[in-house]
Amino acid sequence: MLVTNHVLAGALLGGSTRRPLPAFLIGVASHFAMDAVPHWGKWRDREYFLRVAVADGLAGLTAMGALLTVARPERRAAVAAGMIGAALPDLDKPAVLWFGASPWPAAVNRFHSRIQDEAAGRFSLEAGAAAALAAAAVAALRRP
Ligand SMILES: [Zn+2]
Q1: Among 52, 84, 94, 124, which residue's Cβ finds the most Cβ atoms within 10 Å?
Q2: Ligand 1 (ion): which residues have CB within 5 A?
Q3: Ligand 1 centre from 59 Cα, in Å?
């Protein structure tokens, strides 16, 4: 799943839990749960993967900044923790690209790889999830 969608889900969860440590832990769990549902992937080649990954990484960082700006001040720490926890498992992608190795134990890498339910023709599913998660996150972060 795109890291942007993990970030949006992490913001929603962080804004709902309102406590940083649970938000972080639930964010991490949400990452693996979301990777196990059908989503966009199975890139035709490395170049295409990198084009999507760079755009997605930048969109995810932009979403983090925007959601922290939108969040009510008393929720920002939990929102940040939720987003970081939700995005953290995918740190293996840039780590492998730049340093040649994943920061996670081999068992985590195997599990993370094995749970993926990816297919190339699912961009609209991914985009729809992004729209729904963004709307829900903004609503949750602004709610008094
Ligand atoms: Zn993942």
Answers
A1: 84
A2: 35, 90
A3: 16
> Across 12-81, where does the E strand assignment appear?
39-40
Measure the CA–CA gap between 3 and 84, rounded to whole angstroms.
Answer: 11
* DSSP percent split of the chain into helix, strand, coil, nearest 5: 80, 5, 20
Place of tokens 């068992």: 107
Per-residue pLDDT, 143: 86
The rounded Å distance from CA 144 to ligand 1 centre is 32
Are 59 and 7 in contact by the 8 Å Cβ rule? The answer is: no
**Residue 144 or residue 90, greater confidence:** 90
Confidence of residue 129 (pLDDT cuts 50, 70, 90): very high
Dist. CA 90 → ligand 1 center (Å): 5
- Residue 58 Cα to ligand 1 midpoint, Å, equals 16
Give 144's pLDDT tier (boundaries 50, 70, 90): confident
Ligand 1 geometric centre to CA of 122 (Å): 16
Q: Domain segments of the chain: what residues?
A: 3-142
